[in-house]
Amino acid sequence: MATALAKATDRTAAAHEYAARIEHVSKSFDGPAGPQLVLDDITLDVAPGEFVTLLGASGCGKSTLLNLVAGLDAPTAGAIETPGGRPALMFQEHALFPWLTAGKNIELALRLRGVAKNDRRDRAQELLSLVRLEGAYGKRVHELSGGMRQRVAMARAIAQDSQLLLMDEPFAALDAITRDVLHDELTRIWRETNLSVLFVTHNVREAVRLAQRVVLLSSRPGRVAHEWTVDIEQPRRIEDAEVAELSVEITEQLRGEIRRHGQH
User: Fold this and answer.
1) Same domain (yes/no): 176, 155
2) Domain range for residue 59?
3) pLDDT value for 7
């Protein structure tokens, strides 16, 4: 299963030099005092197979940018390209349909993709195996723990067969131990499938643990304030000395951005 996914992603990636291209993107929303600028002149590429984390203070526009890349909203200025097709999006909440089983939730994504009915169950089982939930096909959402629900949501996102996976703080609501386990699982799945990942978080150590590149957005309006290439061998642990050291450096930059914009 993982091999098949990796080959499919490799073929798609080979045809494109980037999984996402964000060029001079700005976004404004109407407010009581007129247009409110949320994102200002964002330029960012995500390479095929690259794992990028978007980091910043609350309200800096991280989720807004992710929604623009997902095609859920349009930028006020600039352009966004995802040449591999529509990205898959995974939210902080699992957004599973409670009246469907874990397997049927995944099958729904497969059906919308046009996978033949006779093939959907086997594909759903393979995806559950990928996220290490063998035997969970027939379980209802209320029978699953929070971590298991997020694994199913991850499998459903991968079922969309997109080159680019967008993740909006998907582990923020989980306890520390479950989140730690899912960091390991996400790293494993990313390496096995060669997906491109754009991951939003406000947790500095999570950003450093997962990413090849960390992009810091300034406080509103969101601009690219700084980028770091993370040259730390995977798999990483949240408590690793190198992770901690880089996290301290990034945290200082983040605090500086918050102070500069007068936020507390």
Assistant:
1) no
2) 2-87+166-260
3) 47
